[in-house]
Amino acid sequence: MQGTERIETVVVGGGQAGLAVGYNLARAGRRLVILEAHARVGDSWRTRWDSLRAFTPAIISGLDGMPLPGPRWAFPTKDDLADYFESYAARFELPIRTNVTVTRVSREGDRFVVETSRGRFEADNVVVASGHEHTPKVPAFARELDPKILQLHSTEYRRPSQLRPGPALVVGAGNSGSEIALDISREHATTLSGRYQRAPVGPSRHPVLTLAILPIVMWVMTIDTPIGRKIKPKLVRGGAPVERVRKSELIAAGVELAPRTVGARDGSPMLEDGRMLEVANVIWCTGFRTDLGWIDLPVFAEDGEPIERRGVVPSVPGLYFVGRFFQYRFISSLLGGITFDAAYIARQIVSRTPAARPSAAADALRDSV
After folding, report:
1. Which of 4, 10, 243, 363 has its CA 20 to 30 A from that of 152?
2. Domain limits, the chain
3. DSSP state of 244
């Protein structure tokens, strides 16, 4: 596709958030297109480390209209999820265009202009469902480490066989760091560096416990409740808490829990307590830089984050976000919570543009309040 195409809604990102929004809009009879940068739907999961699984069991990890196949209480693998999302898009005939990179979103008059690697769109609405942190973040002192030490960012890690013989340091004790440390501990002496913070409530392999937890994470821990408003700033500042890997599991696997890595000395990583570690491998699970520079609109706070509430940008009507951490619920960015936010945003779009004469199916959009 080249030139300019006019459409009601452009959804940027064909991952779980984009598919969930697309399902609800298509069900309401709205015209949309979903733009996905990868070659296949699900590739953002296929390219992650081999042992990765969903943080929530299959029974609450599927999108609307189609349950995840397999045991209901199992945690799906990353390839299970990738194939599921591809099948989901095909089953509901969602209008996805792959290998399309969005390079700029701006506004001309009352319409959005979405510039891509394969042409230009004009739209009444734009939904950013691509995530906002894609550029790996590694501390500057990484350059001071001995060149004999193998360094990988979590985006590059796939399996323990990539590593060199000898001890390994995993920097960053969040979800990725905890999962990867547990993975490599089978073959390498492993140190996990950082502040380990367990989620206030986490998924369980036990159905009864999971069902007991659900009401808390779905309805109690939100931006509209006192407890939700209290914990959100702490979680945002401290990073996403660890959902699945327990500290006891790390200790049982022989993983050493250590303070933060703050620098390098004589080519070796240095911990906050002054200790030097002699390691052959360092895996940086230090997150990503915010990367929303392609949105050329005045919607950002001083910290670079968009000013929105429940994904709705009040200063620019028609611009929405889905899939952000704690967007409304504690689990907004997880598979178990993303469908609620997607349905909410779809309702905002349907109510904003009645001239499109939505079908009666719009009334069936389920309430996500």
Report:
1. 243
2. 4-132+292-364, 137-288
3. S
Amino acid, res. 66: M
Task: Please report the DSSP string for 167-189 in residue order.
Answer: -EEEE--SHHHHHHHHHHTTTS-
Q: Which two tokens stand for residue 36?
A: 């996905």
- Residue 321 and residue 327 in contact, taking contact as beta carbons nearer than 8 Å: yes
Both tokens of 74, joined, read 């199992």
96 contacts 89 by C-beta, under 8 angstroms: yes
pTM above threshold 0.70: yes
d(CA 292, CA 104): 10
User: 58: exposed, middle or buried (C-beta count within 10 Å: 0-12, 13-18, 19+)?
Assistant: buried
For the chain, what's the residue count?
Answer: 369
Coil vs helix vs strand at 293: coil
Could you say which architecture CATH assigns to the domain 4-132+292-364? Answer: 3-Layer(bba) Sandwich (3.50)
Structure-token match 């509430």, residue found: 309
- Bridge partner residues of 128 (DSSP): 12, 321
CB contact at 8 A, 279 and 285? no
3-state secondary structure of 306: strand
Residues 6+ apart with CB under 8 A from 247: 196, 198, 257
Tens digit of each residue's pLDDT, the chain (369 residues): 567 999 999 999 999 999 999 999 999 999 999 999 999 999 999 999 999 998 888 988 999 999 999 998 888 999 999 999 999 999 999 999 999 999 999 999 999 999 999 999 999 999 999 976 678 999 999 999 999 999 999 999 999 999 999 999 999 999 999 999 999 999 999 999 999 988 655 555 556 666 667 666 776 788 888 988 888 887 766 666 787 888 999 999 999 999 999 999 999 999 999 999 999 999 999 988 878 999 999 999 988 889 999 999 999 999 999 998 888 887 888 887 899 999 999 999 999 876 544 444 444 454 444
CA angle 124/127/132 to nearest 5° reads 140
**Residues 319, 129 contacting (CB under 8 angstroms):** no
Does the fold of domain 137-288 match that of domain 4-132+292-364? Answer: yes
- The Cα–Cα gap between 324 and 337 comes to 11
Domain 137-288 part of CATH 3.50.50.60: yes
